[in-house]
Amino acid sequence: MGRNKNKRRKEKVRKWRKHPQKQVGSGTEVSVTREKFQAAARDLRNKIDKTIQRLLEIGRQFDPLPILSQVAVSLLFRDPETYCSGSETGEAECEHLASLFLSQPYPATAIPPTPDIIQECFDLVDSIKHLYPIYYYSSSSDSQKLRPNLMIHTQFVRGEAYAYHVQKQFSELAPAHDVFLLPQCGVSSSDFLALLRHAELQINSAVNNRFQRSRELEDELLLRYEAAKGALPSGKRFEQAVAAVNDLSFREQNKETVAEFVHLIDAPGPPEVIEVTPRNPKDTAVLQLLSAQFGDNERFLQVPNWCGWLLNPSVVQTKPFIVHEGRFYMPVVPLPFRNALSLLEGVIKSADPDYWQDNFLPV
Fold first, then answer.
1. I need a surface site. Which of 25, 45, 88, 274 has the fewest CB within 10 A?
2. pTM (2 decimals)?
3. Number of Cβ atoms within 10 Å of the Cβ of 41
4. 162-202, pLDDT tens digit by residue?
5. What is the dihedral of CA 248, 249, 253, 257, to 10 degrees?
6. How far apart are CA 330 and CA 68, in angstroms?
7. Which residues make beta-bridge pairs with 328?
8. Residue 101: left if φ>0, alpha if ψ -120 to 50, beta else—which one?
């Protein structure tokens, strides 16, 4: 056994000496792969540009709020009953989509998006997610590897700060500026943080309620199906529920329950799921300070040669809420609370640049 092993090793060495470019993991192979990517860089860039333009086109035709909501619920939340490790959140995709939709005015005649349009948006943002890092690696030489690494890391790594750390940092630094915030903005730093907590909890609750209701309906449907048919369809629990729903006679006998279940599955995130309802005037004041309207993010499309690309400066970074027809929405749920201190600093800088420069920075 040992001699055979040694013989195979020698054969591998001989093959590598004869054809080193074929050796997996060799520097030559990596170089060849990079050359192939570099040759395809222009096509990759064109694909990304076309994908961005298609998303902008959708945002001009269809109501963007249901799209943002369904993408947010599907990419940022996981039903604890069905969650499995390796299911990464899609904060970067949600942020990019919100930046694109906010870069244009709300459609004059907004068409409700169909399931096919919403699925197309999922596919488009997913396509950009995969093309973007390949493009930056392919367009850089070996001596420029640091730049794409930094850009890809900046775009896709959204490390979750511990809630305790965020609150501790905010509580130690922000109250020093209450003397400015109260007369200038009508709110204190504690009001600011309380609104961010409320917004996060409200949306988490709305999403969890939908998950819970869909599980209750699934259980109810399967109980009724087993009682009516004597046995359950084969497959996992959700697959069994789908099979029950597709049984015409059963569906006819359970119209209302089936309709509600199908609606929760097909439309997991209507706009009200990501809506933030202020509890008092101070909540409203904070939301107004941190909200953008459709069309406020024009600069996202105005970077020469990089229209709508992911790392362009975006209003989403300083105004993570959307205000539309007097209602407030939060399309990228993790962003505001995690960046509480920088958001407050942005409010101070906008309200009074002199205070920011002369009083805030020295602290």
1. 25
2. 0.81
3. 16
4. 667 778 888 888 998 899 999 999 999 999 999 999 999 99
5. -30
6. 9
7. 276, 323
8. alpha
